[in-house]
């Protein structure tokens, strides 16, 4: 589809927008990037995502597609002639990939926010932070058990689950710093998997620098404290 117009509307620290960047880069799909300020949402964002009013949004030939995992599946189906395919052909494996991607969204992201949300970096660990840390480790260990002997969850290439999870690697430093723990000590196979993902150009050029992610959280916490 050489004449396609593809626009990604996102916010630079968003792990969900990062997913879409990786998917587009992995398939080699040209696209335009439009930065959105989620603290001051534009009329354009409200028009293309009137239901949730959130990023990311993929606008393909003027038609918006919302929610990051849904966008990944849309990209995979629309450009099915481009490799790699993100979803396996086997129905059970496909259902399992979708289930785990949903699990990450509902469990990992919400649990991780407990570690740092509205908390000063010099504070000790409170009960909520401890609970958040334990929940994050529980999720990572459950997902870690799914990779087996494969280099990626998608096998020899990045699949839906790889693309859904790898953007959170940028938050590992933030979680560890606020939560005072080591993910590599607790989940060494997840960290080894992440380093393999970083060898992919699509991931390396799309992933947010961990220090920038940390600095963003610090600034956000300052705003919340006002």
Residues in helices, as a percent range: 40-55%
Query: Roughly what fraction of the amino acids lie in strands?
Result: 5-15%
Number of helical regions: 11
Total domains: 2
Low-confidence residue ranges: none
Structural class: alpha+beta
What would the principal axes of the Cα set say about the shape? Answer: globular
Neighbour order of strands in the largest sheet: 2-1-3-4
Q: From the alpha carbons, calculate the radius of gyration and give it in angstroms.
A: 18 Å
What average pLDDT do the residues reach?
94
Q: What is the level-2 CATH architecture name of the largest domain?
A: Up-down Bundle
Layout of SSEs?
Elements: E1 6-10, H1 15-27, E2 32-35, H2 43-48, E3 57-60, E4 63-66, H3 68-78, H4 91-116, H5 127-144, H6 160-165, H7 172-179, H8 183-186, H9 188-198, H10 201-204, H11 210-225
Parallel strand pairs: 1-2
Antiparallel strand pairs: 1-3, 3-4
Helix pairs in contact: 1-3, 4-5
Structure characterization notes:
With 226 residues, the chain is α+β, with helices and mostly antiparallel strands. The chain has 2 domains: 73 residues, 3-Layer(aba) Sandwich (Glutaredoxin), CATH 3.40.30.10; 135 residues, Glutathione S-transferase Yfyf (Class Pi), Chain A, domain 2, CATH 1.20.1050. 54% of the residues lie in helices and 8% in strands. The chain has a 4-stranded mixed β-sheet, covered by helices on one side. Helix 4 runs antiparallel to helix 5.
């Amino acid at each position: 589809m050489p004449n396609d117009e593809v626009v990604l509307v996102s916010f630079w620290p968003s792990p969900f927008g990062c997913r879409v960047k990786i998917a587009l880069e992995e398939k080699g799909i040209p696209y335009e990037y439009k930065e959105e300020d989620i603290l001051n949402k534009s009329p354009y964002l409200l028009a293309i995502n009137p239901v949730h009013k959130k990023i990311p949004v993929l606008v393909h030939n003027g038609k918006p597609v919302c929610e990051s995992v849904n966008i990944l599946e849309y990209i995979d189906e629309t450009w099915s002639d481009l490799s790699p395919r993100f979803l396996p052909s086997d129905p059970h494996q496909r259902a399992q990939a979708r289930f785990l991607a949903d699990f990450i969204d509902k469990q990992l992201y919400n649990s991780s926010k407990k570690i740092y949300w509205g908390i000063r970096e010099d504070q000790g660990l409170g009960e909520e932070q401890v609970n958040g840390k334990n929940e994050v480790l529980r999720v990572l260990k459950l997902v870690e058990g799914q990779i087996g002997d494969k280099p990626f969850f998608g096998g020899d290439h990045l699949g839906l689950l790889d693309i859904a999870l790898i953007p959170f690697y940028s938050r590992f430093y933030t979680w560890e710093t606020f939560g005072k723990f080591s993910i590599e000590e607790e989940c060494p196979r997840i960290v080894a998997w992440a380093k393999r993902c970083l060898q992919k150009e699509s991931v390396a050029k799309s992933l947010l620098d961990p220090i920038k992610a940390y600095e963003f959280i610090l600034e956000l916490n300052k705003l919340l404290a006002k």
